[in-house]
């Protein structure tokens, strides 16, 4: 009983803090039009929206499932909710990768970054959201409810893939695409960026404009690295 209450308190705290933090990011970027002209800020805006959706649709379902509360919504909401959970999760991973690629181009290949216009940023964003929807769509199609008895009286309904013979294959593919590949790619990209930003060739004397730009880029990369570390630390138990 005490463990369930502790879990409930932690889950509610994460939900409130996560939604409030991401809502703050969205508000700050939307209210300052200068921030909207930056490609990295557009990516961060969409990442905040994806994380908010992930928290809103995943946290309540996780709390209900852990507490063993009966599924009270109509049957159609079971696969639909599962689709939304995976949709925002996949979108979040793809947007993390997009931000890593954009920052790598800005820091390591600045000449090519000049071609990375606002239109290109919008295309990247549309591609990330569309791919996430297409990959998550089968989850909403091949789902069914399975009653699970809990303590003889209580029961819940959980959604599972309706194609059990291919379930392991599908999950392994998702694990590779949305965990292993992003983790390896982002580790390589940010390692190269850190070496470039903190290497000997970046030692600039004095308070010049180049030094100010370098400090700004370092602070952005630090923030993104911390964000990715926290993200994958929290995401790892889900994949285990």
From TrEMBL:
Name the record gives this protein: G-protein coupled receptors family 1 profile domain-containing protein
Q: Where is the G-protein coupled receptors family 1 profile domain?
A: 21-240
Q: Which InterPro entries match?
A: GPCR_Rhodpsn, GPCR_Rhodpsn_7TM
Q: Which PANTHER family match?
A: LEUCOKININ RECEPTOR-RELATED (PTHR45695), OPSIN RH2 (PTHR45695:SF15)
Task: Report the membrane topology from the UniProt record.
Answer: Multi-pass membrane protein
Keywords in alphabetical order, please. Answer: G-protein coupled receptor, Membrane, Receptor, Transducer, Transmembrane, Transmembrane helix
GO molecular-function terms, A-Z: G protein-coupled receptor activity
Q: Where in the cell is it found?
A: Membrane
Can the keyword Protein transport be found in this entry's annotation? no
Q: Which PROSITE patterns match?
A: G_PROTEIN_RECEP_F1_1 (PS00237), G_PROTEIN_RECEP_F1_2 (PS50262)
Give the transmembrane ranges. Answer: 6-30, 122-142, 172-193, 220-238
Domain of life from the UniProt record:
Eukaryota
Looking at the keywords, is Nucleus present? no
May I have one GO cellular component term? plasma membrane
Q: What does the sequence similarity comment in the record state about its family?
A: Belongs to the G-protein coupled receptor 1 family.
């Amino acid at each position: 009983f005490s463990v369930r209450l502790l879990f409930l308190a932690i889950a509610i705290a994460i939900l409130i803090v996560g939604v409030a933090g991401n809502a703050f990011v969205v508000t700050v970027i939307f209210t300052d039009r200068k921030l909207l002209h930056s490609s990295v800020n557009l990516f961060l805006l969409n990442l905040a929206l994806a994380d908010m959706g992930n928290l809103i649709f995943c946290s309540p379902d996780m709390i209900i499932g852990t507490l063993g509360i009966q599924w009270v919504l109509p049957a159609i909401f079971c696969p639909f909710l599962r689709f939304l959970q995976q949709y925002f999760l996949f979108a979040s991973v793809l947007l993390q990768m997009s931000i890593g690629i954009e920052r790598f181009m800005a820091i390591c290949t600045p000449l090519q970054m000049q071609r990375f216009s606002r239109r290109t940023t919008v295309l990247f964003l549309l591609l990330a959201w569309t791919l996430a929807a297409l990959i998550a769509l089968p989850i909403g199609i091949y789902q069914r409810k399975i009653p699970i008895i809990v303590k003889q009286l209580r029961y819940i309904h959980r959604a599972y893939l309706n194609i059990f013979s291919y379930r392991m294959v599908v999950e392994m593919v998702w694990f590779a695409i949305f965990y292993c590949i992003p983790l390896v790619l982002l580790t390589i990209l940010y390692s190269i960026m850190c070496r470039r930003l903190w290497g000997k060739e970046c030692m600039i004397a004095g308070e010049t404009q180049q030094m100010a730009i370098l400090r700004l880029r370092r602070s952005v990369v630090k923030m993104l690295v911390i964000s990715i570390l926290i993200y994958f630390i929290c995401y790892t138990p889900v994949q285990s």
